[in-house]
Amino acid sequence: MTSWLTALRIARREARRAKGRSALVIAMIALPVLALSFAAASYDMFRLRPAEQAAREMGTADARLLWEFDGPIAQNPRGEGWSSSSDPVTSPRTERELLAALPPGSRVIPSRQGFAEFRTAAGIGSMLTRGLDIRDPLTTGLVTVLDGRAPASDGEVALTKEAAERLGTSLGGTIQDAGRSRSWTVTAIVEFPGALREAVVFLPTALPGDPASTTAAGWLWDAPAPVTWDQVRQLNQRGMVVFSRDVLLNPPPLEATPEMLRSTSVDAGAIGIGGLVAGLAILEIVLLAGPAFAVGARRRRRDLGLIAANGGTPAHLRRIVLADGLVLGALGAAAGLVIGVVTAFATRPLLEEYLTNQRAGGYRAFPLALAGIALLAVGTGLLAALVPAFTAARNDVVAALTGRRGSVRSRKRWLVAGLALAAIGAAVTMYGSRQTDINVLLAGLIIGELGLVLCTPALVGLIARLGRVLPLAPRIALRDTARNRAASAPAIAAVMAAVAGSVALGVVLGAEQERNDSSYEPGLPEGHALIYYEHQTAGDPVPDPEELVAIARETLPTVTALPVGQVTCPPGSPADVYCGLSPRLPESRECPWFDDAGSLSREDQRRAREDPRCEPDNGWSRVAYGNLVVTPDALPALTGATGDDLARAREVLLAGGVVIGDPRYVVDGKVTLRIDDANQPEGMVTEEDERRMPTLVVPGYAVASGLPAYSGVIISSATVAAAKLAVQPSGVVVATDRMPTTAEEDRLTGRLRELEVRAWITVERGPETHSDPTLLILAAAAGLITLGAAGIATGLAAADGHADLATLAAVGASPGVRRRLSLSQSGVIAGLGTVLGVAAGLGVSAAVLYAYNQAGAERWPVEVPYPIGVPWSSLAVVAVVPLVAMLGAGLLTRSRLPIEARRAT
């Protein structure tokens, strides 16, 4: 114990003497501690306690009720899941019926919700509506009045801040419905702590829209006594779902919940992945901070040699270096914890508004988790100092006192162990890929990475031999990198690990986005729009297509706007029948396993995969806007076809044929259409019924350019006439010269609502893309790690090569030699680590994507595989970092060569 106290005093003194190095190590350890403590405190603040959760769900009421079934149900204690074999209620229960089923002395207030269209600042939009009397004390906690007073009449509403902003109004203003037939005065600005989003609050009796179409969010129940679990189960027999405050605060045993409704247990796979990722993070910190401790041990080599010469044992030397890790780890933990918790408290409003969209439960810090994080930080500091400690304990005392370097060769056993671990990691990774077990796969990757870390010193020595053919500065840089392997090898390994992780995750995320994009099936060329309206029955007003065309030209960046129609029954047909034309696939081209997809045996799935009729790109699963009747001029706006392909499609449509996207339907230039008319069978149509339906064979052409194949058909009016059916206008297709903005779309929606019929617009905006900065953040993090590791190793080399620089000055070397030397040293560390990291990252990502693709390769229908690509944006950042590190080292290094005074002996 005494020796440890002495070591700690020496470590404290050394930390004060080497302030720059100490600050660097503290920052390295404090950064992950800051992130973890921020996450722990934020999690604890947003993890609602049972009482807080009850307030969000039911205010101050004893329970919230839903009565949606006529017979018994089963529910879990929280009321979040239920099941019933009974029929849903046909009409909403009344307050009188509810009170008759509850104990005497009960009081309930209704809570309803739905959606309605309102006039917004830009046009017309649909918003959530709540029917709730927020004057009642039962709503306290469920909703909070921020400003103004609660609505007291049917002509008053309360708005959330988000709704007020979108509607372009404020307290005391008014809002209107889409048709301007009603208006309401805004008497309050409110918020629902459990959901910070747009909402308009009415009295329950004033909720706009059809009461039958609104969703009953339930009833708030003020019970005469706490609602126990037994009472909940009794009400379940009446068909009620009950969310009870007492049950939430005092949950029953797990056995009381039906097995099918029990909450899932802890996700062991997620914990395993989290543990592996945490292990990688600790390894990264150790690799980064280790060279800094090596710098300290190298600078104190003579001091440690004096301790050994005066009777200090190797154990004493190890404790002195390990004490550095203990002291700096504790300081890093303290700094990280304080900054992390303060940051969590300070950013809580931002997290509430932009991330969780709900209010936190309170200001809390999760003390148990913070204690664990502090221990982790101190342990990480000790691990980072472990290798330098054992290296310092093995130093030759005479070499240390005389300034000689001693042995710099890598031990063969480390190389053998590294190669063995790399081989084992590759085998485990391949096994995990074949078994599609992501935990096994990640474990194999970590084992392989540890093996590469152990091989790095030998690799550095091997590359140093190239220095014989290089100029002076790079030659010295390679020699010093090999001579200072205790610091340079961990630095190179840290760069490799950071770059490998960034590249690997970048490839996987990029492949996932590309896969999602390839699976997306557009209905129109990108940027084009379709204005459409409901199928009109006889006698209903039909919009004037030319009016729709004029509106489109006024509001959208329109190039062309042309009317489109739909097939309908001829005049005089019954109002409740369907008429239409649909393509019939020849039996010889039908996939025989299509109807049984999802329940096939392995052998049948194999046969389906090998059958060209069952390929997923044959269009058997594609659906667009159905069948449209248009003139040839509308083909570019609908299909995006070009050149000869468009010309041939026009010819077929002019000849009274149809244009289709799936070539399987075209046989010898003809397409067979099934005719659905007033004589078709009523109810469910069987395969036998379909075979007896009349058909029509017309010229057909499958477009090859523009949109991918789909099962819809573009029909000429002559085809409809030949089928003895009729055409009814259904909308306008709009070709644009750019993507319409949201404001333009809102203005168009507003103009459409001014018509007597309800019309809608859909704009083809392509696959949904998320502006996820993950890849750039990872690349930036890898770049910062690369710069830090290169700076640490360059600083060590400069400190350790001080005497060499003096020798260079003595023999007449120019001042620029020092800059070129630092530039070369930084380039070796950053460049070698980056090259190894990119290679490792691409290999890792290939293994992960292979695992995912392998999982779906044996199934049918065949899933779209993950393409293997390169995240060029991430690689661009990573590739530039070594150059930045070299440039920084060259600019920040003092060019004046030092002059060393001879030590007295």
UniProtKB/TrEMBL annotation:
One Pfam short name: FtsX
Compartments it resides in: Cell membrane
Annotated Basic and acidic residues bias: 601-615
Chief localization: membrane
KW Transmembrane helix (keyword) present: yes
Region of interest (Disordered), residue spans: 593-615
Membrane topology: Multi-pass membrane protein
Keyword annotations from UniProtKB, A to Z: Cell membrane, Membrane, Transmembrane, Transmembrane helix
Residue stretches making up the ABC3 transporter permease C-terminal domain: 277-394
Protein known as: FtsX-like permease family protein
Source organism of this protein record: Phytohabitans kaempferiae
